[in-house]
Amino acid sequence: MANLLALVQNETIKVWKKKRFAVVVLILLILIPVFVYAQMKIAQNSAEKFKGDWRAELQNRITDNTRALGSDRIPEEWKKWRRALVQQLQYYLDHDINPQTPNAVTFTRGFMDNAVTLFIPLMVLAIASDLVSGERSTGTIKMLLTRPVRRWRILFSKLVTLTLYVSLIIVSTVVLCYLISGLVFGYRGWGEPIFVGFQVSGADVNTSAVHAIPQYLYVLMQAGLIWFASMTVAILALMVSVLVRSTAASFVTMMAAIIAGAILTNMASSWHSAKYLFNVNLELTSYLQGTPPPIEGMTLGFSLCVLGLWALAGLVVSFAVFTKQDILN
Amino acid sequence: MEKDTGIERERERRMGSTTWLWRGLGTAALACLLLLLAGFGWALKDQWMPTAGMAVPEASPPPAATGGSLAGKPEILIAALGDSLTVGTGDATGNGYVKTAAEALAKAMDKPVRVVNNLALGGLRADQLLERLDDTGFVNAIRQADVVMLTIGGNDLFQFATNGGSMAQGSDISPAQLESRLPEAENRLRDVLAKIRSLNGTARIVYVGLYNPFYDLERIRVEASDIVQRWNAYAHHLAVADGNATVVATYDLFESDIARFLSSDHFHPNEAGYARIADRIVQVLQ
């Protein structure tokens, strides 16, 4: 046990000293202000139009989306999405709750909802992709494997390290998002009510299970779901990193899979078996939001199972290959 | 010997700093992990075993309009409802008559004029509008408005023109059909205006009358114009009975040189057509 802990310590310090996490934080520090600025412009624009009357603004969103429903040029899948959105917004309006109170927590919530499919996986890959292949390209893998330590322990310590860093990345994203956007939008909003529990069934939204929760709880649940999706990405990246020699190849392979998933979620609704791909299931937060899933019949339980099975398969392959493979050059 | 202890000390110092880094990093990461696991667990619980949730604050509807003359108000609020004419379909600039009229009114009266909301939906019939008038958003907007602008009825009378056949040719319009639709549509208009009035007792209601979109079709020009006239007359009758409502005539705007003021669908006005409607609204409101 002490042995394993020492290995984890070693791996954690290695990733830190390689400045991988520093890069992630740097990316966040550059990108979040960009999004905050864009959001600020949008907010200023609508404040000018609606003079702070959020009900009018909300109704305007409902009307806009309803108008789009009448258009014949919009594909049926998008209409389904809009129809659900209209019913949700109407629910907010009927209960006199502003779904977009202007504050840092609302911004963080929106940012995380959008970050789950591409942005967070990208940052996870920054650390996961060279965890094993990085040792190969520098040759240090030989040093590591000649130690009197079982190979599975080495890979296991890397997995634990990865888990720790994935958690750090997600929490840092939330915290930095809150701190930076708070400068513009104000550090309030933890207690604002948010509705969850919208059930999308076909064209209709079932509101019987809808209940209000404070926004901080929403952000916490959202971060938890993002963590699960990110862990699947991290484990699969670890697997690719075991299988592929170069870090670049490993990174590109995973990135291609993630981007393909993002594209597929937008167009795969008629290809039903695509729902068994891990990259179509990454957007777990959509179940919290109550937006229609990319493919009919997907639920939170289903997506968790698919992601879990992919992660399990990734672990089995990683350990099987890593403990057996010959290290040449 | 001296040198040896120096190296030893240096190594110890390094080991020390690494240990501290590991302790800090490890603890922080572990705390994050536990927090996220808690969030994950809570999300599952909330999704599968939802509880009643927090109490939602009581609804506090927006302030209602105060009434009185438009000239005496610091700011004029406009709510717009109805069909594609109020949406502004056919206007390449996207302004429609509502925005154009609001801007012109602001200039003419030298005070801010704000469109609270344009709630119009393309293809809406009067009976559908009547249903929508129960929606929270419609109630909110109408309650606080000083002026309610609307167009409705065109789809009640002419909607079959869009079902099959080219609208421009008016292929399936028969005068007898128009005639048979009129009484029911008139009842719907009456109900819509009564409902708006019940929501806001003081707003000035501006009903933009119908024009004959088939004026350049000789086959039904006379009959269709006749129906439009009777419709507008009925709307005028309702407006007079209401006392604070006005019908803005538009039929005469689209009778000559119609191609200049209708958009390419031969049914909706273009930006020039909407600008003329807006001119009349401003004249009525001043």
Describe the fold and architecture:
The complex is a heterodimer of chains A (329) and B (286). Chain A is mainly alpha-helical and 329 residues long. Chain A has helices spanning 2-17, 20-50, 54-69, 76-94, 104-115, 119-128, 133-138, 140-146, 151-185, 215-243, 247-267, 285-289, 300-324, and strands at 193-196, 199-201, 204-206, 211-214. Chain A has one domain. In chain A, the strands form two sheets. Chain A has a two-stranded antiparallel sheet. A two-stranded antiparallel sheet of chain A has the order 2-3. In chain A, a hairpin with a 2-residue loop joins strand 2 and strand 3. In chain A, helix 5 packs across helix 9, helix 6 crosses helix 10 (215-243) and helix 9 (151-185) crosses helix 13 (300-324). Chain A is globular. The model of chain A has no long low-confidence stretch (mean pLDDT 90). With 286 residues, chain B is an alpha/beta fold. Chain B has two domains: 1-54; 70-285, SGNH hydrolase (Rossmann fold). The interface between A and B is large, with 51 and 52 residues.
Question: How would you summarize this macromolecular structure in one to three sentences?
Answer:
The complex is a heterodimer of chains A (329) and B (286). Chain A is mainly alpha-helical and 329 residues long.
CATH architecture of the largest domain in chain B: 3-Layer(aba) Sandwich
Tell me, what's the shape of chain B?
elongated
Q: Please indicate the percent range of residues of chain B in DSSP E strands (runs of 2 or more).
A: 5-15%
How many domains in all of chain A?
A: 1
> Residue ranges of chain A: pLDDT <50 for 5 or more in a row?
none
- Along the chain, the helix and strand elements of chain B come as HEHHEHHEHHEHEHH
Estimated helix fraction of chain B? 40-55%
- Radius of gyration of chain B, in Å, reads 31 Å
Distance between the termini of chain A: 31 Å
Biggest β-sheet of chain A, characterized? 2 strands, antiparallel
User: What is the number of helices of chain B?
Assistant: 10
Alpha-carbon distance between the two ends of chain B: 102 Å
CATH domain topology of the largest domain in chain B: Rossmann fold
CATH H-level homologous superfamily name of the largest domain in chain B: SGNH hydrolase
Please state how the strands of the largest beta sheet of chain B are arranged side by side. 2-1-3-4-5
Number of strands of chain A: 4
Mean pLDDT score of chain A, rounded? 90
Q: Name the structural class of chain B.
A: alpha/beta
Mean pLDDT across the residues of chain B is: 86
